[in-house]
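Reader question, answered in our methods column.
A reader sent in the components of a multi-part assembly and asked whether the whole thing could be modeled at once rather than chain by chain. We filled in our standard form and ran it. Here is what they sent:
COMPLEX SIZE: two components
ENTRIES:
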Amino acid sequence: MTPIRQQLLAGEQPAGCGECAVMEQNLKVSGRQKQLLKVGVRLEQFEKTLVSSPWRDTFVADHFDQLPQDWQIDLGNYCNSACVFCDPHSSSRLAAEWQRIGFTQDLPPANWTDDPDLVAKFIDTLNQSSHIQYLHFIGGETVITPAFKTILRALIQAGLNCTATIGFTTNLTVWDAEVVDLLTKFHGVNLGMSVEAFKIVNDYVRWPSKLHVVLENLDRWQSLAHEQGWLLQLRTTPTLFTVGGLLSIYDYAWDKQICVESCNFLTEPAFMRPSVLPPSYRQPIIDRMKAWLDAHSVSGDTVINIRDPNVSQLQNHQDLQSYVNYLHDMPDESNRLPDLVDFVKRLETSRSNSILDYLPEYEELFRSAGY
Amino acid sequence: MKNFSDLLATDLHLEVCVNNTVYSVGLSVPLDFAATDTVIVDGVEILPRYQYLAVDGRLTITEPFYQWYHRVSGQGWLLKPQ
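And here is the structure of the entire assembly that came back:
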């Protein structure tokens, strides 16, 4: 951590902080804002809230031996989806495909969760953490990752389910009754549901999912969540393929009063960023988004706690505004279009599909870049 | 840029405006207002916005102001050392 601290003290921005910086520049609530909030620190009153934090003494302590209360657990890349923007470290299916078509030579290392001894050791550590507030699992597709069930069962056996909240995101292609049963035994569940657009292009981007299956599972998870009092979110990763259909997500979220969240503005793969769209393609999207914002008027303080369902509409309004800001202000990166076209052409030979069947309105754009 | 030690050594205060009179108050000093007061702390409206939290005509804040504000303004979990 020392080099990072030195960079910060010198007023420099460490490379790993770039995504949050772009988010804040476009008035999107960043990861650092969300995490700082858990210890009571807010950027607009940084010094005063930091000094007022319950953690102020530990910030300067030489030694701190408490186990985490808030965990982020990466279960590995076990996944049945192969989303076009994903990478082999997060999808085993994509890893196998990329190796087959020559995008990569080597598969990622084996998942630690495939080793029963490591899983048992991890569970021992959790069992020593008597003050767990939240465990957020990432993958891969968590629901079908065997270690997810193993860990949930162990937490229940240790009685930690009475106070802990479980968080995870599903790709809405699978349902597992046993996982559902285990989850209902926890104090709370924060459920993220991944979808890019309620349009057919979702099938291309979140390949090989099918929109009708996604919608069925969305309904099932929602019914369960309402019954159990779980917190729901729609999780998106907007790319140049889906940013034009993003309003379908916000329409749905507005009606259902569900928060929409993205981890960032996509940085990698760079050729899939929404900013690769040339300005002439961005402007109609901006106009539609502005019209939506005008038609769904709501105002209030900036929402940092995106897990407050009482302010989901305000949060979504502010979040959509961040895409207007981004599309308006980010430099034109359409020079990356040939890289995009090269990538999708090779991928489509494996998948026997064509982006033009999903986004015919972009045919001229993609043809101009060599499609 | 300040580091943590510099920051903790800095004398920081709340700017508390009660019925248009401004006071400078320590960050952890308990605050007590009449429920009918108009109160703004560091630019944030406290009364009448949180009048419903008053008891027997008084709004009393015994914990550090920003921890109290985190709670009442719906900022979610506030983790604490155990």
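What stands out: The two ends of chain A are 45 Å apart (CA to CA). Residues 110 and 169 of chain A are 22 Å apart (CA to CA).
Send us your own complexes using the same form.
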